[in-house]
Amino acid sequence: MRWICTWMVPVESEEELRELAKAANEAADRMIKNLDETVAYVDRVLKHHSCSARPAGSTSKTANPTR
């Protein structure tokens, strides 16, 4: 999927345009960092749940400590 986002932002100077570009890049970096952290968290949660799940047909008392 490809996203194209276009904004019409009036700028007074090339310096102002550079500042806007820098702010946009920093915001994008923060969003990517947050997404990376979210993916890592979800990965940890899924691994934890898949490791703690009792295998189908298991009769081992250690597989289900509530028994």
Write up this protein.
- The chain is an all-alpha fold and 67 residues long.
- Helix content is 58%, strand content 0%.
- The protein has 1 helix and no strands.
- It has one helix at 14-52.
- The longest helix has 39 residues, at 14-52.
- The mean pLDDT is 82.
What labels would you give this structure?
67 residues; mainly alpha; 1 helix; 58% helix
SS content category: mainly alpha
The beta-strand count equals 0
**Model regions low in confidence, pLDDT < 50 over at least 5 residues:** none
N-to-C series of helices and strands? H
What percentage of the residues does DSSP assign to strands (E)? Answer: under 5%
- Helicity, as a percent range: 55-70%
Radius of gyration: 24 Å
Which geometry do the CA atoms define? rod-shaped
Count of separate DSSP helical elements: 1
Give the topology:
Elements: H1 14-52
Précis, in short:
This protein has 67 residues and is an all-alpha fold. Helix content is 58%, strand content 0%.
